[in-house]
């Protein structure tokens, strides 16, 4: 399952501070019941527009986040071969980033991975 969520955030600390975004990635992993392999890592991206990019690598796949403070934009992808509560994940992103506008797309895996990898049930 792949949750793609883009939004306009009002939690300026979360979209501008490396430490806060790292903490959010850790909380996101816990909230959806996944297993960390590496990370979280967050870097300042000095490009145009500047922002933060973060990732946590999971046994089940990954969570990435990109922020663009000049426009308050946040982009979150939660990609997993294991099913998770998408509504809970959306609510967590909405609440913690304090989104005033957002769009969501959910893409389901084309095969039932829990059937193929029993530990992901």
TL;DR?
The chain is an alpha+beta fold and 121 residues long.
Sheet of most strands: 6 strands, antiparallel
Unreliable stretches covering 5 or more consecutive residues: none
Question: How are the strands ordered across the major sheet?
Answer: 2-3-4-5-1-6
Helix content: 25-40%
Q: Based on DSSP secondary structure assignment, what is the total number of beta strands?
A: 6
CATH topology: S-adenosylmethionine decarboxylase
What series of H and E elements makes up the topology?
A: EHHEEEEHEH
Count up the domains: 1
SS-based class: alpha+beta
Tally the helices. Answer: 4
Tell me the name of the CATH homologous superfamily. Answer: S-adenosylmethionine decarboxylase
Shape: globular
Terminal CA distance reads 13 Å
**What is the C-alpha radius of gyration, as a whole number of Å?**
14 Å
Structural description of this entry:
It is a single chain. The protein has 121 residues and is an alpha+beta fold. The protein has a six-stranded antiparallel sheet with strand order 2-3-4-5-1-6. It is globular, with a radius of gyration of 14 Å. The chain contains four helices and six strands; from the N terminus they run E-H-H-E-E-E-E-H-E-H. The mean pLDDT is 91. It has a single domain, classed as S-adenosylmethionine decarboxylase, CATH 3.60.90.10. Helix 2 packs antiparallel against helix 3.
Question: What attributes characterize this protein structure?
Answer:
alpha+beta; S-adenosylmethionine decarboxylase; about 120 residues; single chain; six-stranded antiparallel beta sheet; 4 helices
């Amino acid at each position: 399952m792949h949750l793609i969520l883009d939004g306009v955030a009002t939690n300026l600390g979360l979209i501008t501070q490396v430490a806060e975004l790292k903490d959010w990635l850790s909380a996101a992993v816990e909230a959806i019941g996944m297993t960390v392999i590496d990370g979280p890592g967050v870097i300042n991206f000095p490009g145009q527009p500047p922002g933060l990019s973060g990732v946590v690598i999971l046994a089940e796949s990954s969570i990435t986040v990109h922020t663009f403070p000049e426009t308050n934009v946040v982009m979150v992808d939660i990609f997993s071969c294991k099913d998770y509560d998408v509504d809970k994940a959306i609510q967590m992103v909405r609440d913690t980033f304090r989104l005033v506008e957002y769009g969501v797309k959910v893409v389901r895996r084309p095969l039932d991975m829990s059937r193929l990898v029993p530990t992901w049930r």
